[in-house]
Amino acid sequence: TPWPIVLPLGVSFFTFQQVSYLLDVRRGQAAEYDFLDFACYVCFFPHLIAGPIIRHHEAISEFAAVVAKHIDREMVARGLLLFVLGLVKKVWLADQLAPFADDGFAAAAPGTALAWQAALAYSLQLYFDFSGYSDMALGLAGMFGLSLPINFDAPYRATSIREFWRRWHMTLSRFLRDYLYIPLGGSRAGPLRAYAAALGTMLLCGLWHGAGWTFIAWGGLHGVAVCCNRWWLGRGLRLPALPGWALTMLFVIAGWVLFRADDFHGAARMLSAMAGQGGSGAADDDGWAVIALAAALAIGGPTNLELSRKAWPYRPVLAVPLALLLLVTVLRVGQGRGIEFIYFQF
Fold first, then answer.
1. Cβ of 37: how many Cβ atoms within 10 Å?
2. How many beta carbons lie within 10 A of that of residue 174, not counting itself?
């Protein structure tokens, strides 16, 4: 019988913050902070639900600076723009992709086209949902006069699996590197120790995402891929950019199927259908249009952070269109089914 335990939202994220601080104190790398400053660091709400994972030295020093200075109107304007663009990502892209992903993964015998549509839709939904939240968190922090670390850097442009993890959930990757990979030996104790450390780190990364075997298997697969990539580069071998990108994306998309599936049977059903062994389920033409738009933005378009850092966001003439965009997006939220952020469960 399942235990009737209700966990608070974002428990893993604020636990990571405090674990990192305690470990830094143990290493002699952290100062002793005033209780109020530390409480503000732990409870600063914009990032608590789904990141980014911020370190004590990245936030606490800024609190005093914010109190001591006047309101930076340009920073508030850029933060507001980033917040609205993140919300647009969530509502107009991630939430529109969700039904196509759900239909494919729920099908008893998906056809090849339906399986690929679902896998692509979920891969893009996860990116826009999660990066949209991160944009909103950075935007809210900017409105308070604070700068949070970047969490995404166009990960679907990566040409290797190691580059993917340098671009995807960057604060988690950094946390795992500093508090798991390096303490386990890292690259300092020879190649075999480095492979074992990378594999162990990614297995724990999978376990962090959920206490299920599919998550652990997903982490293990990425660990093996990181080790293979390290071995390949260690021998001076290189793939051209386009084949490297295609191979990386094929692996990442297949991995997201395992991440999304309820169990191994469901993942095997989807992957076999993607390999051409599917049933008769047909794909939705509207789904391909949404996927094409989302893929173009994820791979070729500018990121929201890049847009917010340009010179034009601070011009007053943009206040009206930005307000209208926010209004239309909020109204859209009221019209559709409520879809929570995917990373709320982690």
1. 15
2. 17
Q: In this structure, what token pair is assigned to residue 214?
A: 């599919």
Rounded mean pLDDT for each run of 10 residues along the chain, 346 residues in total: 60 78 90 86 77 83 72 84 93 94 91 95 96 92 87 95 96 92 85 93 91 93 96 91 97 97 95 86 88 96 84 73 92 78 68
DSSP class of 91: I
DSSP 164-227: HHHHSSHHHHHHHIIIIITTTTTTTT-HHHHHHHHHHHHHHHHHHH-SSHHHHHHHHHHHHHHH
**Taking Cα atoms as reference points, which of 320, 300, 299, 318 lies closest to residue 310?**
318
User: CB neighbours (10 Å) of residue 235?
Assistant: 7
- The CB density around residue 311, as the number of other CB atoms within 10 Å, is 6
| Of 66, 47, 60, nearest in space to 21 by CA | 60
Using alpha carbons only, how large is the chain's radius of gyration in Å? 21
Amino acid at 173: S
List own/partner pairs for 8-11 with CB under 8 A and 24 or more apart.
9/48, 9/49, 9/344, 10/48, 10/49, 10/50, 10/344
- Residues acting as catalytic residues: 209
What is the pTM (predicted TM-score) of this model?
Answer: 0.91
